[in-house]
Amino acid sequence: MVLLEKVEIHDELNPILWEGDKLKEEVQSRLMEIVEEFQEFVSIPIHIIDVYVLGSNAQYNYTEHSDLDLHLITNFVTSEMSEDIAEALYNYEKASFNGHYDIDIKGIPVELYVQDVKAMNASKGVYSLYRNEWITKPEKELEPPELDDDKIDLEYNELKDEVEIALASNKSSDVADMIDKIYLMRRESLAQDGEYGVGNQVFKKLRNNRYLDKLKDRMYELRSDELSLENLQRR
User: Fold this and answer.
1) CA 41 to chain centre
2) Residues of the chain with confidence (pLDDT) below 50
């Protein structure tokens, strides 16, 4: 069964999270705690410049399946590592954190990212958690755009087949590569076509059908096995 996430346009921001156009105080406070927990969790230092709330739950097109995207903004240049290495390490720490913690805000899953300050956000709504104000304030759309359902279904089914192959692998690196591919697809889709891009819609269908959860669970299962030493019987 394929769960489709239909485009919805609301007259107000998600009232679970927002009081008018400001984050509810209890929501902002809890998100700050999540950021602090991540800073303690990571094994490498991270200097956070700001934290952005974005995605569907920072716009008027949220659905019951929408998660809450929390982007930790840092500067890879000042990390005392090459930018490529910094990005790879922070991505690993982010994936590890998201895999170990199952956090939600009143039933809305929180997805945490680490983003370089030079990276651009294509989201039409970007809210600064540190400054408690909008960087980019969303505008209500008169009607949702028409999606290319056939193309979305085609790319979804092709990628789902690749996911099934990764899930059947006995190497954690194969599963990790698949997870990276899916998130990179979403990132490029958002940068090129925004929220309604095909890649982002495919990502949402994979997420809603729990393929991302299955991949993350499988990756940690395999990694645990790879790090374990079997108890061999003495001869």
Assistant:
1) 18
2) 1-4, 231-232, 234-235
Total count of domains within the chain: 2
> Domain boundary residue among 84, 107, 136?
136
Residue 182 lies in a domain: yes
Residue 51: count other Cβ atoms within 10 Å of its Cβ: 22
- Domain membership of residue 109 (yes or no) is yes
Helix (H) or strand (E) holding 50: strand 50-54
pLDDT at 143 (0 to 100): 66
What pLDDT shows up at residue 232?
A: 44
Tokens encoding 221: 């299962």
**Predicted confidence (pLDDT) per residue in 122-167, tens digit:** 678 899 999 999 999 998 876 667 778 889 999 999 999 999 999 9
Has residue 121 been placed in a domain? yes
Give the DSSP per-residue string, 127-152.
EETTTTEEEE-----SSPPPP-HHHH
Give one DSSP letter per residue of 211-233, joined into a string. HHHHHHHHHHHHHHHHH----PP
